[in-house]
Amino acid sequence: MPARIIDGQAVAKRIRSEIGGAADDYVKRTGAMPGLGVVLVGDDPASAMYVRMKRRACERVGIRSEAQILPAASTQQEVEDAVRGFNEDPAIHGILAQLPLPDHIDEEAVLSQISLAKDVDGIHPVNIGRLGMRGREPSFTPATPTGVMILIDETGVPVEGAQAVVIGRSNIVGLPVALMLTNANATVTICHSRSRDLPAVVKGADIVVAAVGRAEFVKGDWLKAGAVVIDVGSNSVPDETSEKGYRYVGDVAFESARQVAGYITKVPGGVGPMTITMLLANTLKAAQRIADIKQ
Ligand code: NAP
Q1: How far apart are CA 190 and CA 164, in angstroms?
Q2: If we measure between CA atoms, which residue out of 248, 252, 224 comes closest to residue 237?
Q3: CA–CA gap between residue 180 and residue 186 (Å, rounded)
Q4: What is the mean pLDDT of the segment spanning 233-240?
Q5: For a pLDDT cut of 90, what percent of the chain falls above it?
Q6: Which of 165, 75, 59, 278 lies closest to 67, judged by CA?
Q7: 167 and 139 in contact (C-beta within 8 Å)?
Q8: What is the DSSP letter of 115?
Q9: Per the CATH hierarchy, to which homologous superfamily does domain 143-273 belong?
Q10: Ligand 1: residue whose CA is nearest its atom 48
Q11: Known catalytic residue: 113?
Q12: In this predicted structure, what is the pLDDT of residue 293?
């Protein structure tokens, strides 16, 4: 039987509607909207597009968004000042530095400037450190990995005791997903570009998270029958049949994988819609926490 599709679009829509309701309640309670501050440096079209998408998503659920758009040649000081400005702005409850930053900017130094209470992207080094330490709670967990965990939860397949394989160890996806799966009591294997015999490693997994950045990299015959497969990848490939001349595919060869997996996400329509939704959820949470403290 082909795998059941985990519909990220539907899950995201449900959660966004809950966020919209809670944002209305927040306005009634405080007289102001929750606010997200975005720092964008340079003119990378993909980054500009992500920032526009985030702004539209904010508007739809009743979160105010404000962008500081800085030229590519900005200095370290100017970028950090933009972050510090949002830290001090009481109308801004969450701060996001759109990555990647230009090469001459020290990314860690910029992220470290974000107030922990406003780190709605969950990638302040202290928050990532807390995620990896037993008995510590990060202020926020990163958006894409949190979305991945919710999609796994949707399947009803227990994470506790499961064998999980995460392919990819990036700071924003692979590593935090692996930490979150470990915290949920899975037995986790992290694979990367130097891992040997990936198909054999993946074959042992009840849960597979692919965050590689290579089109259709994970093949169906690598998978254990019935596995939960979460495809984080978003790769554009040429497609003459599409108006744009390209389409997006994941890191998993979907057609072969769905014949073997128990549950699988699609690309697009899987993890993607969850990422922005989790950013909205964290921004609302940040605003609510700040309001609770003031009361
Ligand atoms: P990244 O920073 O490029 O990391 C890719 C990871 O894959 C690295 O850890 C790398 O290993 C590993 N890798 C590369 N080639 C491999 C191979 N042949 N075998 C095993 N591992 C290999 O990418 P990322 O930022 O994590 O993103 C991963 C994918 O997710 C991309 O397609 C990206 O577009 C997508 N993404 C989607 C969302 C969303 O919201 N849907 C959000 C973020 C990212 P090394 O560490 O050894 O180099």
Answers
A1: 9
A2: 248
A3: 9
A4: 94
A5: 98
A6: 59
A7: no
A8: -
A9: NAD(P)-binding Rossmann-like Domain (3.40.50.720)
A10: 193
A11: no
A12: 85
Q: Name the residue of 6, 146, 150, 173 to mutate for ligand 1: max ligand atoms within 8 A of Cβ.
A: 173
Instruction: Identify the residue whose C-alpha is closest to ligand 1 atom 19.
Output: 193
- Ligand 1 binding pocket includes 272 (Cβ within 6 Å): yes
Give the pair of three-digit tokens for residue 289.
Answer: 């926490």
**DSSP string across 174-237:** HHHHHHHHHHTT-EEEEE-TT-S-HHHHHHT-SEEEE---STT-B-GGGSPTT-EEEE---EEE
Class of the domain covering 31-116: alpha beta
Q: Name residue, tokens 């530095």.
A: 97
Of the candidates 182, 179, 173, 177, the one whose C-alpha atom is nearest the C-alpha of residue 213 is: 173
Domain boundaries along the sequence of the chain: 31-116, 143-273
Report the 3 state secondary structure along 55-114: HHHHHHHCCEEEEEEECCCCCHHHHHHHHHHHHHCCCCCEEEECCCCCCCCCHHHHHHHC
Q: Among this protein's residues, is 54 annotated catalytic?
A: yes
Give the global pTM: 0.96
